[in-house]
Write a structure and sequence with these properties.
500 residues; mainly alpha; 3-stranded antiparallel β-sheet; two-stranded parallel ribbon; 53% helix; elongated
């Protein structure tokens, strides 16, 4: 596959495909021309002696210090080295590649003054499979995700660490040399242009939002499985009920539940023996519908963000306007949306765990045996799925521990010149953790529902059969106790293979 960046039309799907697959990334002809024109504008301004933040001045609280032309290249290199102050474990390869791609797309806007050589070097790193070593921690999300992006581009100037496909970490200079292209000068304002944006936030956040879209659809299917094995009442997702409270997500989730349970032998309208269900069954459309809406809101915001000019200064805007006073590098909007996404996905996980708890509780499972212990096994001698629900409960508790919004946690930096920062990378980390953790909780619910189908001798509704079959292809019905953690992991892997 190939992808041409133009600074305007990058999508979440394209980011995920490029970050996780083999995609050749280039520049559109229009983007290439804009980049060249803007760089020429910058060079003319430098030649004319126009003061330019971060080119003829220092950075941050040092912006009152003048930098002579002969010191420019050292200034840009020193910026990258000094700002590479990240610590902790490295970002995942796909997150780092997403960050690289999104920054390249910002530079393709032609409004940052970056040189073509530095932008082409970033694209060559992507296309050559070079993954820089980028520590996860150290960015506050304002004036850009400075530390992680500095680590990202250190190999261009012969520093840092990186790896190539199939290799371990090696010196960044060695990895970059393997690409077979000249190292760029990284002068002018190339250093600051490469790092002055929100791309750690959006790199992690875009992948989280992309995965969350699938997770919501999967959670709907698994919730339908639980509805079926618990003999749920279909009134809760009747179209007329959804239209009485017409949030788009609730309408869509209700429709999904109707499709999944069509032809079910067990999910039926209300009847004298079953007028209503517990809220973890009855309110699936309201809770998962809210998650649907939150994910789409976050996704729309992130698509604006990854096609925006996250930088300062910005050159060659309408009517030739140039400014060194832009705040477009501030990640507040992305941080708030990712906090919202994390909170809503956590609610998806909470309600999934509550259905799992019903499935193992003989008082609330409509006649299923305690802890879903098989009728051929002896209770007491066997514990069944007792501790699978404990695991889900533990994961829910951890989600709640991480429930405080990161985007409220401003701590002033840079001698108080940056006196409000959004901590948006932490919001992205929180969203990614919520999505990953919720997927495991949903897999636990699905594992229990599959056991319940077998215990009841119930054939799943037609649309749910692929999910049941995928689980049973990897995880057989449990007759006697066995290692539960392996089953949970296998169930999660199986559900990733089913189209939703």
């Amino acid at each position: 596959m190939s992808l041409l960046l133009d600074g305007q039309s990058l999508t979440l799907q394209a980011v995920a495909q490029a970050a996780r697959g083999t995609v050749t990334v280039g520049l559109s002809d229009a983007a290439r021309q804009r980049v060249a024109d803007c760089h020429a504008l910058l060079q003319n301004m430098i030649a004319d002696g126009t003061p330019i933040y971060g080119v003829t001045t220092g950075f941050g609280a040092l912006d009152g210090k003048k930098v002579p032309p002969e010191g420019n290249r050292a200034q840009q290199h020193n910026l990258l080295k000094s700002h590479a102050a990240g610590i902790g474990a490295p970002m995942r390869d796909d997150e780092t590649r997403a960050m690289m791609l999104i920054r390249a797309n910002v530079l393709a806007s032609g409004l940052t003054g970056v040189s073509m050589a530095s932008l082409e070097a970033l694209l060559a790193m992507l296309n050559g499979g070079l993954v820089p070593h980028v520590p996860r921690r150290g960015s506050v999300g304002a004036c850009g995700d400075l530390a992680p992006l500095a680590h990202m581009v250190l190999p261009m100037i012969g520093f840092g660490r990186a790896k190539l496909p199939g290799s371990d970490w090696m010196p960044g200079a060695k990895a970059f040399a393997s690409l077979g292209i000249p190292a760029p000068a990284v002068s002018g304002r190339d250093g600051i242009a490469l790092i002055n944006g929100t791309e750690q936030t959006t790199g992690i956040g875009v992948l989280a939002a992309y995965d969350a879209r699938r997770l919501v659809r999967l959670a709907e299917a698994v919730a339908a499985m639980s509805l079926e094995v618990l003999g749920g009442v279909s009134d809760a997702f009747d179209e007329r009920v959804a239209l009485a409270k017409p949030h788009p997500g609730q309408i869509a989730t209700s429709e999904a539940l109707r499709q999944y349970t069509a032809g079910s032998q067990a999910v039926l309208p209300s009847r004298p023996s079953r007028l209503r269900d517990g809220l973890s069954l009855r309110c699936i459309p309201q809770v998962l519908g809210a998650s649907r809406d939150a994910v789409e809101h976050a996704a729309a915001t992130l698509e604006i963000e990854i096609n925006a000019v996250n930088d300062n200064p910005i050159f060659g805007l309408v009517d030739g306007f140039v400014t060194s006073n832009s705040g477009n590098f501030h990640g507040q909007r992305a941080g708030e949306m990712l906090d919202m996404l994390a909170t809503s996905i956590s609610s998806l996980a909470v309600i999934s765990e509550r259905r799992a708890a019903r499935l193992v509780d003989e008082k609330n499972s409509a006649g299923l045996p305690p802890f879903l212990i098989h009728h051929q096994a002896r209770p007491g001698e066997n514990s069944g799925f007792m501790i699978a629900q404990y695991t889900a409960a533990s994961l829910v508790a951890e989600l709640r521990m991480r429930s405080v919004p990161a985007s409220l946690q401003s701590v002033p930096t840079c001698a108080n010149t940056e006196d409000h920062v959004p901590m948006s990378p932490l919001a992205a980390e929180r969203a990614a953790f919520a999505v990953d953790t919720a997927e495991t909780i949903v897999a636990i619910e699905a594992l229990l529902a599959a056991q319940a189908y077998d215990l009841r001798g119930l054939t799943p509704a037609p649309a749910l059969r692929p999910f049941y079959a995928a689980i049973r292809a990897r995880v057989p019905c449990m007759v006697e106790d066995r290692e539960m953690g392996e089953d949970i992991n296998a169930c999660r892997a199986a559900l990733r293979e089913v189209a939703v």
